Amino acid sequence: MSLKYILPVLAASQAVFAADCGDTKIKTQSDADGINTCSTLKGDVTIDKSFSGDLQLNGIKKITGGLLCSGGANVSSITASSLTSIGKGFDLEGLTTLTLLEFAELDSVGSINWEALPKLQSLNFAKGVTQAGDVSIANTGLTDLNGISLKTVGTFSIQNNRDLKTIDINNLQNATNIISFSGNFDTLEINLPNLGTGTNMTFQNISSVSVPSLEKLTGQLGFWGTQFETFSAPNLTQTGDLIFKDNSKLSNISMPVLKTVSGGFTIARDDKLSTISLPMLERVNGAIDFSGTFNKLSLGALKDVEGSFNMQSTRGNFSCDDLRKLKSDNVIKGNFKCDATNNNPTTANGGKGTSSSSSGGSSSTSSGAAFMTGANVPVVGLAAVFGALAQLL
């Protein structure tokens, strides 16, 4: 073969094998095709906001950096059939026409941050993502999170996904930072059957939550404005702040082995909750602040309350005298207030204690019938809720 033919062939061959497998910006599918010989891409893959249509990342198995796109309003789909891992962030923001994410082999990402993907309704993650640092998903069209099968996670924040109806993550065992759900579909059902430990968990606008294996939280557990009737944490022994507020349908809370609340414990405006029973609760390191319409109370194992104590109900069938004895015995270290028959019960800071009450209840301390102990009341339990609900709407 003539030299004049050989040289161009060699040059083309070298160009193929010399594909730059570092940081890559993709403006067209041709740019993506230019890195399809990179089994491992050592850097970030950035999809330019000018990209339009369906993007296919072929041949790449690993991205050591991130897979990024911000403002790609005309990106309709992203497919990467061979990609197994993204070392850093999988960050998509403002892809307003994106309808498909198809990553059949992806199982590990540094983090997920998806924001404003209104057309994305489901995930085609056949293998399932089992490893991720932090996960934040907000303002998408997702109806479930199938394909995210995490075993551990840092932050897990799911906010303002108006069509999200179910979250079922069977593999999740530990969360090292906040788990937060708010502003999603009003009847969102959450199932975390194997979650054993975590830090903070906050829930708003959900219809059910299942945490049967949860044993210990180092931070908050909180519920606001939920739609479920029953909350159960049968194995929870310790948590930080514990708060229940404005749960209009809540009538039963069961936490039969809870021993320690490492922060404050608040129940307010849960008008259908008639019984508060915590048969094993021994220590509250902050304040106890219960206000509402409950008529039965069981705190028979209580040994130490480091903060103040506020107990107000419209129809309490419990004895403030028995509770006052806890104060005189120095079980309760802080200020004490109890009123079992207050038409306008208030929280410790003067807020409404029921959904219909006005602020500013009476300050009397009255006695009702018998104060129940763990020995003479069935385990109805008290649910865990609380916490500073970060990431509000």
From TrEMBL:
Superkingdom: Eukaryota
Keyword tags: Glycoprotein, Signal
Stretch list, region Disordered: 342-367
Subcellular localization(s) per the UniProt record: Cell envelope
InterPro entries, per database record: CWI-Assembly_Regulator, LRR_5, LRR_dom_sf
One of the GO BP terms on file: fungal-type cell wall organization
One GO CC annotation: plasma membrane
Descriptive protein name: GPI-anchored cell wall organization protein Ecm33
